[in-house]
């Protein structure tokens, strides 16, 4: 399965290289920039606008997290029951799709992005995917994500139940991803790498802005360490449905992440990311490339990936949070020992919430 996924990624990467090689570099109308395709020229102004006025001059903050979340919630709206994939339907049909339970709270980033969309000549589907890829470039350790343009605007909303919920079973989650885009079991884990820079506002509304790991501003492997620390599953009350108690104060864990980290089908792939930054970035770039074009004819799209800056480097290592050790790991991968990690010095501290935008 993993080989097939990487083969698909390499095929799309070959398309990117060929597309760039066949197009002569052109001067853009702004008199400053050049591009391999004239169609990409308009993205320079959009890029600068987003970086300055949405992403706080290049910060990896809440608007970046939410913009990445939006790329997924739009693209995953496809399957045997309908939906157009990455087509902008979640914003075009906002009144319908934001009412779906799984999309709770996503109207906030849609509304924040509206003024930028109005100022620039770009389809909604292209805008959502571009903004997500650009935002991630502000996060240390992140991969440089691809950008394609040429998606037509959605003509109908995606159906409900296309976005997996945190309280769904592993069987349900794997089946949904397989139906959406023939995502393999390991590719599901790869998509959840996005949770390394994520936080929740409404899984438990009493603690908004609660991150999924202790380093939500860094695209690192800490998420895959901390989800494997021992925790307790809540009974699923209205206030914390889909939430798992984290041993780190101030941190939230989704039931789905907790169970995927421990399921025999996904546990070893989950553990394989611990302190493996190179694999983390490589696999997320591959699976984002697949997700960002769902429902579209790749051959009709234009590669504008050159517009995305190289993200800042991350040279740190995964660690156990202060006060924790391998004895606190609830290891589920029987094939491979848990990696050896250092423990942060000092007393146990609380994880700070992600500040609102």
UniProtKB/TrEMBL annotation:
Its cofactor is heme b; Ca(2+). Its EC number is 1.11.1.-. Ca(2+) 1 binds at residues 74, 85, 87, 89. Keywords: Calcium, Disulfide bond, Glycoprotein, Heme, Iron, Lignin degradation, Metal-binding, Oxidoreductase, Peroxidase, Signal. Heme b binds at residue 195. The active site is at 73 (proton acceptor). Residues 1-20 form the signal peptide. Ca(2+) 2 binds at residues 196, 213, 215, 220. Belongs to the peroxidase family. Ligninase subfamily. This is Peroxidase. It comes from Cerrena zonata. The lineage of its organism: Eukaryota, Fungi, Dikarya, Basidiomycota, Agaricomycotina.
């Amino acid at each position: 399965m993993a080989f097939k996924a990487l083969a698909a990624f390499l095929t799309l990467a070959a398309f990117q290289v060929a597309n760039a090689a066949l197009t002569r570099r052109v001067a853009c109308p702004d008199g400053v920039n050049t591009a391999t395709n004239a169609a990409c020229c308009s993205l320079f102004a959009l890029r600068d606008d987003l970086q300055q006025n949405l992403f706080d001059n290049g910060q990896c903050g809440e608007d970046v997290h939410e913009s990445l979340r939006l790329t997924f919630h739009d693209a995953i709206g496809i399957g045997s029951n309908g939906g157009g994939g990455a087509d902008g339907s979640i914003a075009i049909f906002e009144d319908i799709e934001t009412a779906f339970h799984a999309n709770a709270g996503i109207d906030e980033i849609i509304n924040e992005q509206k003024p930028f969309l109005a100022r620039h000549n770009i389809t909604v589907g292209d805008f959502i995917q571009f903004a997500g890829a650009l935002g991630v470039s502000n996060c240390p350790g992140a991969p440089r994500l691809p950008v394609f343009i040429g998606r037509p605007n959605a003509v109908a909303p995606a159906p409900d139940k296309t976005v997996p919920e945190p309280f769904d079973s592993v069987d349900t989650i794997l089946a949904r991803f397989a139906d959406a885009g023939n995502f393999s079991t390991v590719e599901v884990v790869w998509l959840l790498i996005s949770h390394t820079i994520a936080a929740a506002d409404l899984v438990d509304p009493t603690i908004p802005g609660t991150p999924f790991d202790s380093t939500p501003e860094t695209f690192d492997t800490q998420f895959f360490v901390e989800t494997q620390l021992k925790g307790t599953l809540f009974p699923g009350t209205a206030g914390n449905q889909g939430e798992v108690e984290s041993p780190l104060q101030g941190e939230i864990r989704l039931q789905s992440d907790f169970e995927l980290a421990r399921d025999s089908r996904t546990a070893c792939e989950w553990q394989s990311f611990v302190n493996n930054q190179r694999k983390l970035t490589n696999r997320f770039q591959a699976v984002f490339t697949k997700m960002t074009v769902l429902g579209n004819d790749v051959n009709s799209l234009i590669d504008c990936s050159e517009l995305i800056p190289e993200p800042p480097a991350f040279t740190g290592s995964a660690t156990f949070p202060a006060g924790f050790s391998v004895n606190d790991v609830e290891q589920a991968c029987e094939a491979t020992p848990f990696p050896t990690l250092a423990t942060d010095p000092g007393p146990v501290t609380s994880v700070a919430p992600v500040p609102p935008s």
